[in-house]
């Protein structure tokens, strides 16, 4: 955040700055005091909104699950299927790497936080609903819960491999004709659903 914080929504400014630090240095690399110093406010100001460092991390996770749910909901309403929901999941991860990192790190979070639980549940409800778009001749009804787990595992794994640099370091991504991450996701996750991308 350039030139620190001047006025306006301090809560949003703290979350934005924390996300920048997490993306660059990881979730253990900030304190409320350091965020306050970066923003040019008193060291007690962020505590008024978040209470503690853990409060900031919880708020980042809540924000992340809310954005993810909105994206999955928009995909569903636009007629996107389960595969495209997975693509949106990966797109979210690479566009919000700090949020993604915190959202799935229970040790960083206060798990009994009601707002966090509500945001997480809303996101996974959208992901679960997406499996209904899979045709009955592809997936039997009793296999749909397993498809949710398998689909989530694939796209979460792709996102994690991409964010950690392992997808590129392994050279696996270069095996595809189209190395765009979302294209790789469509082809890889599409195998689960018996849906193959058209040949170029």
What does this molecule look like?
The protein is an all-alpha fold. The protein is 64% helix and 0% strand. The protein has helices spanning 10-25, 32-39, 45-50, 53-77, 82-95, 97-103, 114-130, 144-163, 166-169, 181-190. It is globular, with a radius of gyration of 19 Å. The mean pLDDT is 88.
Fill in the keyword field for this structure.
200 residues, Arc Repressor Mutant, subunit A, mainly alpha, 2 domains
Topology:
Layout (H helix, E strand, L loop, with lengths): L9 H16 L6 H8 L5 H6 L2 H25 L4 H14 L1 H7 L10 H17 L13 H20 L2 H4 L11 H10 L10
Helix pairs in contact: 1-2, 1-4, 1-6, 4-5, 4-6, 4-7, 5-6, 5-8, 5-10, 8-10
The named CATH superfamily of the largest domain? Tetracycline Repressor, domain 2
Q: Biggest sheet, open or closed, and with what strands and sense? A: none
**Integer tally of domains:** 2
**Radius of gyration, whole Å:** 19 Å
Distance between the termini: 42 Å
Number of strands: 0
CATH topology of the largest domain: Tetracycline Repressor, domain 2
Low-confidence stretches: none
Percent strand equals: under 5%
Level-2 CATH architecture of the largest domain: Orthogonal Bundle
Helix content class: 55-70%
According to CATH, what is the class of the largest domain?
Mainly Alpha
